[in-house]
């Protein structure tokens, strides 16, 4: 890749983020979703619709999303839908809470224990903490997940 | 820097007037290409405001003592300076407000709801800033007005045939359109729009928030009924806007806000309004900001609008020569008559990602929808980056932007 001008931005735009941004995983509609919610950061132009399918015992069987937005918001939604599959709703919410801490501060003291491996997968997004105006791009997917799991608020925003 | 590009505009001297331009961003020179959102301030403006607070400040129109009289005189002199700047016939036609947004809301309330009749229509255009959309939606809903939206062409110019069609039934009371788009840079043919509106029996308002910075505005030549601009985009302070309104209209318009300074008599039963423009300036006005605006107008006048226009034309030519050449860059709007505002999209990256990269190079651009969401929908784009120029912008900065955009595209490939 050419252009030394932006080399120090590789911390923010790590290869895994560029990859998930270009080719988001789980980028589809789930017609049999039990929960859905929209996420919208209208000032930015980031929008997504999130689909969650729950198993009979309540754990997250499948998650997918559709939408448009910056590389950070798309990569975050892509990584999130990958990592929450198979998790209980409580685990997913706990991951979201810790992800927001990670995005805002760059560190996550509570990211050990049973969620350690999954938080490790989300770690490439921790670079956004150096870019205060971009934190909301990374957290939109998780706000939207909470809205979907709540079932009540159908529209989320991290602005 | 390439040195002066218009022989009468000394770019180095101009830049030296703006202290912030010597700041570094992430170790790089600060390349400020967001003057369309808010312009930087020269020391002449900063100094005038500080001097006023240090030597001549008191409330206006109230105290029978020296300082208040001085402050009142300075405040009213600012009104005269604004009137001259717009070539208004009478300084009483200048109303000070808090912003362009406040000024449009004043007209929407006082004229839209106070003078226009339910069933009458307001015409806006597809390229309006939210400030010239939302107040009219509110007036529509509260007062039964109809809101009509005049189309723009694919090149980003006002579709005058559509305007004629929108005016045809004679029910339009007001045409409220931008004089220069904050996204496309398009300068609208104000005199022609005013003529069309007047022939159809409508009044006309121009949102000059961008135009007044880039062009000489003559409200009598274009025959505007209302003209709006703001201090902070004209190298002045935030917190002050201007509404030019013809005296005959101010006469019949009811006040917008009630309070001190806008009455000549108050009892608990009734109040008598002060004569215009005081009737529209309730409460303590933005006094220090008015002094700052006066200094900004003096500053712009000292350089001269013709020099500013010539400088900007050169920057626009440079941008038009460079930006469309970059692979993957799409410019929004190709108006013939345009100012130094460019919105663009990059094929490989979202506007926010581009802005974050440009920031790394010390370049400040706006990203998102620039308070013009319907316009972005019109062009079918989610969001854009916008580079906007000021009188201190250099051709080298335009080149820097073009080079950085080229590298940004490579980065995201």
TrEMBL record, chain B:
It holds the Pfam family Aminotran_5. NCBIfam families: sufS. Residues 32-401 form the Aminotransferase class V domain. Keywords: Pyridoxal phosphate, Transferase. SUPFAM superfamilies: PLP-dependent transferases. It catalyses: (sulfur carrier)-H + L-cysteine = (sulfur carrier)-SH + L-alanine. Its cofactor is pyridoxal 5'-phosphate. It comes from Falsiroseomonas frigidaquae. Its EC number is 2.8.1.7. Belongs to the class-V pyridoxal-phosphate-dependent aminotransferase family. Csd subfamily. The keyword Lipoprotein does not apply. The keyword Transferase applies. This is cysteine desulfurase.
């Amino acid at each position: 890749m050419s252009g030394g001008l932006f080399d120090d931005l590789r911390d923010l735009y790590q290869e895994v983020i560029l990859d998930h941004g270009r080719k988001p995983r789980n980028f589809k509609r789930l017609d049999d979703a039990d929960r859905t919610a929209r996420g919208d950061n209208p000032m930015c132009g980031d929008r997504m619709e999130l689909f969650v399918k729950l198993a009979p015992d309540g754990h997250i069987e499948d998650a997918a999303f559709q939408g448009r937005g910056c590389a950070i918001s798309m990569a975050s939604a892509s990584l999130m839908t990958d990592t929450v599959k198979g998790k209980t709703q409580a685990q997913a919410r706990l991951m979201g809470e810790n992800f927001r801490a990670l995005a805002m501060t760059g560190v996550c003291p509570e990211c050990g224990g049973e969620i350690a491996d999954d938080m490790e997968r989300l770690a490439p997004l921790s670079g956004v903490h150096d870019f205060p105006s971009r934190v909301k791009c990374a957290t939109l997917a998780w706000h939207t997940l909470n809205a979907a799991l709540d079932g009540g608020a159908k529209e989320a925003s991290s602005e | 820097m390439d040195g002066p590009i218009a022989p009468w505009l000394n770019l180095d001297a101009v830049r030296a007037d703006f202290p912030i331009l010597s700041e570094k961003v992430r170790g790089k020179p600060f390349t400020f290409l967001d003057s369309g959102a808010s312009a930087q301030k020269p020391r002449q403006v900063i100094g005038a405001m500080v001097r006023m607070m240090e030597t001549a400040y008191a409330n206006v129109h109230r105290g029978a003592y020296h300082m208040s009289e001085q402050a009142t005189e300075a405040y009213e002199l600012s009104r005269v300076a604004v009137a001259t700047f717009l070539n208004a016939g009478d300084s009483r036609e200048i109303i000070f407000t808090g912003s362009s947004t406040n000024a449009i809301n004043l007209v929407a309330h006082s004229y839209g709801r106070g003078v226009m009749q339910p069933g009458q229509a307001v015409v806006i255009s597809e390229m309006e800033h939210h400030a010239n959309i939302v107040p009219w939606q509110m007036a529509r809903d509260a007062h039964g007005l109809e809101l009509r939206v005049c189309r723009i062409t694919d090149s980003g110019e006002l579709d005058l045939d559509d305007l004629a069609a929108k005016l045809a039934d004679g029910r339009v009371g007001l045409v409220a359109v931008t004089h220069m788009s904050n996204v496309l840079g398009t300068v609208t043919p104000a005199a022609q729009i005013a003529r069309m509106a007047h022939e159809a029996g409508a009044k006309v308002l121009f949102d000059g928030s961008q135009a007044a910075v880039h062009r000489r505005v003559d409200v009598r030549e274009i025959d505007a009924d209302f003209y709006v601009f703001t201090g902070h985009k004209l190298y002045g302070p935030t917190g002050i806007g201007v509404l030019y309104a013809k005296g005959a209209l101010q006469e019949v318009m009811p006040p917008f806000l009630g309070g001190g300074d806008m009455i000549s008599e108050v009892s608990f039963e009734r109040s008598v309004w002060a004569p215009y423009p005081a009737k529209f300036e309730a409460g303590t006005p933005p006094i220090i900001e008015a002094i700052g605006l006066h200094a900004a107008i003096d500053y712009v006048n000292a350089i001269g609008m013709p020099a500013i226009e010539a400088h900007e034309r050169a920057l626009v030519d440079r941008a038009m020569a460079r930006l469309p050449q970059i692979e993957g860059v799409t410019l929004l709007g190709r108006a013939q008559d345009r100012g130094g505002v460019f919105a663009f999209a990059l094929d490989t990256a979202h506007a926010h990602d581009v802005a974050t990269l440009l920031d790394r190079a010390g370049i400040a651009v706006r990203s998102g929808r620039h308070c013009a969401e319907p316009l972005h929908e019109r062009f079918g784009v989610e969001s854009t980056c916008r580079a906007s120029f000021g009188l201190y912008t250099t051709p080298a900065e335009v080149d820097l932007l073009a080079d950085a955009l080229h590298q940004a595209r490579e980065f995201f490939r």
